[in-house]
Amino acid sequence: MTDMKITVFTPTYNRALLLRRLFESLIKQTVYGFEWLVVDDESTDNTKTLFDEINNTNTPFPVRYFVQKHGGKHRAINLALKQAKGSYFFIVDSDDWLPENAIELLTGWLQEIQGIPFLCGVAGQRAWPDGHPIGNSFDCEQYVDASNLERKKFHIEGDKAEVFDIEVLRAHPFPEFDGEFFVTEAVCWNAIAADGYKMRWYQEPIYYCEYLEDGLTKTGANDLSGHIANFQGYSYYIRQCLTIKNILDSYRDFVDYEKTCDAMGLSESKRAEALQWSKEEYRLKKRLVMPLIHNLKRVIFVSKRVRAFFPR
Question: What backbone phi and psi angles, to 5 degrees, belong to 91?
């Protein structure tokens, strides 16, 4: 077995049937410099039985299985970061799988960024089962160095497959709120970017995925219903966006926050409290600053359209 460098981490809940596909894709890897760490969010299917079987086989990489009290993916990540033995951390969801050369590509990419202090990891493309990339293929010959907050600038759009330096992730754990089961991963990725770290984004696909009906994407965890059900975590994310993003980019976050608060019937006092603003500050930003930003964004949009029609 080669020296272990990457922790492939899988959070799971009632996905025993799909986990075998992921396991088989790991068995088929061209190199085995990784461990597979799984945190089970208190599944009620036969997930534990599956891992009892796997651990009774002679796998070419370590497999470690933990069960946590039902608490959501973000808590599973926090637990996994405490248990991981790899130098880098690669989240692979239970309904997804890897092409045979994924770990080999990642190992080479990670070697290339050694000694570059501002780079905290690498990322490849996610692809549909037919091989077509999810999101766009951004403009570059080989790779782009950019932070999570710079993705729009460099046209790095859509879900990607990120691998982070584990010590950087450990320094930026997910916040946990009693009674809530979801916090968007952007909370951590943005905090890492705000501390000056960038990722190296590559074009090659290293991850196959399907968005199943019972997954976080399809169940609305990042939509209005999810914002309401996990309002403390959502408010934390919005506060972060309004603090670390530039004012034009954070405008959309504030608009979405207002829609959520409208749906919940929250008073101005409650809205301000959730953002840790005074009521006066909230009123000033809602009634004066945000309308000014809205008008500025319209001017910028019209200006771009005019320049497109009348190039120099």
Answer: -85, 120
